[in-house]
Amino acid sequence: MPGIRNKHTAGVALAVVLLGGARLAPAQGGAVGQFINTTGTVTVQKASGARVKGALLVPVENADVIRVAAGGRAEVVLFSNGARFALPGGSVTAVSSSAVTTRGGAAPEARKGVAVAAAATRRGNERILGLVVRNGRFGVRDLTPNGATLEDQVVLKWGGIIDAARLELRITNLTQDVYRVQLPVSTREHRVPAGVLRPGVDYGWILSGLGSDGDIVTTNVAWLRVANAAERTLIERLRQDVADIRREDPDSPVSSALLGLGLERLGYWREARTAFEAAQKLRPYDEGLKTAIENLNNILGDSGR
Description:
- By secondary structure, this protein is an alpha+beta fold.
- It has two domains: 14-25 and 121-226, Immunoglobulins (Immunoglobulin-like); 31-119 and 231-300, Serine Threonine Protein Phosphatase 5, Tetratricopeptide repeat (Alpha Horseshoe), CATH 1.25.40.
- It has four helices and 20 strands.
- The chain has helices spanning 229-248, 254-266, 269-282, 287-300, and strands spanning 14-17, 31-39, 42-45, 51-53, 59-61, 65-68, 73-78, 84-88, 92-95, 100-104, 109-111, 130-133, 141-144, 147-149, 155-159, 166-172, 177-184, 189-191, 203-210, 216-226.
- The protein has a five-stranded antiparallel sheet. A five-stranded antiparallel sheet has the order 4-3-6-9-10, with no helix packed on it. A five-stranded mixed sheet has the order 14-20-19-16-17, with no helix packed on it.
- Strand 19 and strand 20 form a beta hairpin.
- The two termini are 34 Å apart.
- Residues 1-28 and 124-130 have low confidence and may be disordered.
């Protein structure tokens, strides 16, 4: 493959990526669920004895004990079955992968469940030759889609000030290229031909600017997966569940946080960020939402602007 010259890469971090067999979203470690709302003082005691602050979108793990101070309230969702529980003020509640158990105070209140993926997709770093490039001022940038997409006919788009002789687009299935084409340097989008992408399969797409000698002078990479039928059904159920919750309490961030969480777990990072931003309008100073949005900005390679 052509060499890489350090041209027009000021402010651009390059690192070798190895992506294999892995799925497309941020891992949550040993999390079995997540907070989707908190008010007042909420504390989580870990199995190790450590205590952490309970806040919106903070993960919970098996054997965690959640303490909600008087006057406070919390709400959690469990990934294995989509069960949702409100934890009243003064309650002490133990968490397992499929249920919560009262340890003291008021009992948890079961709420309408929600369709979430039991296993989060993961952004891996095991096996595909590529480059992770943070957006700089110059060069190939702003690749979309980055992550999963519901579009059947995928149009790849990008931007940037690209000083190159021509562009090369590669799509890899994490083992080998499945598509490769050279394009005029002025091109800013390309429709992937029918039959190249199989639903439910993870791909990386790599766009490079080539010099007149064929050397790579700028490059960027994004992730891509076209939704399969099962994933489309799950997302439709998730949206219906969230709509029901929003009708019950339109002024709460719970519905948007749940939508964002469900989409993030499936690798729909841009859509998840939009949902978290909607929740942030209702809870503008929430640190959990701020952190979640920043994490997605990093994955997507932009500032969300």
